[in-house]
């Protein structure tokens, strides 16, 4: 996310919905964290998997990850890094009283704030076509963090 690429895990992506799950009986659900009747897309024995995973219902499920972010998330300097993380963890109110804040938000914010100078440095190196691993020498040299 730091360099504008898709993350390797769905939890930090802007949208979700690409990690559907199929149960033993062929029932397909929007996500392995949402195996509840309201998220059932159908059954593999009666519907093609592609039609379920690209259905309007599933696309809405995926887009809701970003569309339903509370105000605090939308104002956050690190929105680009976590996008509110997984919706299954969004069950507290934000500082404005809006529902849908991730209960891990404070921890993620502290983490991203801590790693930001190193991630910024590695991003600069990558953009300059140099190895991001140069961060190790930069840290050993005690260089000041790049500005945010």
Fold blueprint:
Layout: E1 21-22, E2 27-29, E3 40-43, H1 49-53, H2 56-67, H3 71-75, H4 79-82, E4 90-93, E5 99-102, H5 105-127, H6 135-140
Antiparallel strand pairs: 1-2, 2-3, 4-5
Shape: globular
Radius of gyration: 19 Å
Secondary structure tally, helices: 6
Give the number of DSSP strands: 5
Helix content: 25-40%
Give the N-to-C terminal Cα separation.
16 Å
What can be said about the biggest beta sheet? 3 strands, antiparallel
Structure report:
- The protein has 148 residues and is α+β, with helices and mostly antiparallel strands.
- The chain is 37% helix and 11% strand.
- It is built from six helices and five strands.
- The chain has helices at residues 49-53, 56-67, 71-75, 79-82, 105-127, 135-140, and strands spanning 21-22, 27-29, 40-43, 90-93, 99-102.
- A hairpin with a 5-residue loop joins strand 4 and strand 5 (99-102).
- The model has no long low-confidence stretch (mean pLDDT 94).
Highlighted features:
two-stranded antiparallel ribbon, 148 residues, 6 helices, three-stranded antiparallel sheet, 5 strands, alpha+beta
In summary, what is this structure?
The protein has 148 residues and is α+β, with helices and mostly antiparallel strands. It has helices at residues 49-53, 56-67, 71-75, 79-82, 105-127, 135-140, and strands at residues 21-22, 27-29, 40-43, 90-93, 99-102. The strands form two sheets. Strands 1-2-3 form a three-stranded antiparallel β-sheet.
């Amino acid at each position: 996310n730091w360099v504008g690429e898709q993350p390797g895990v769905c939890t930090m992506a802007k949208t979700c919905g690409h990690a559907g799950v199929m149960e033993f009986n062929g029932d397909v659900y929007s996500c392995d964290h949402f195996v509840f009747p309201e998220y059932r897309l159908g059954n593999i024995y009666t519907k093609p998997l592609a039609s379920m995973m690209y259905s309007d219902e599933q696309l809405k499920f995926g887009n809701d990850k970003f569309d339903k972010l509370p105000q605090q998330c939308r104002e956050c300097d690190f929105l680009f890094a976590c996008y509110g993380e997984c919706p299954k963890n969004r069950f507290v109110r934000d500082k404005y009283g809006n529902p849908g804040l991730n209960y891990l938000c404070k921890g993620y914010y502290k983490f991203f704030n801590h790693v930001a100078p190193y991630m910024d440095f590695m991003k600069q190196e990558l953009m300059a076509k140099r190895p991001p691993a140069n961060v190790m020498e930069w840290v050993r040299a005690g260089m000041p963090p790049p500005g945010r």
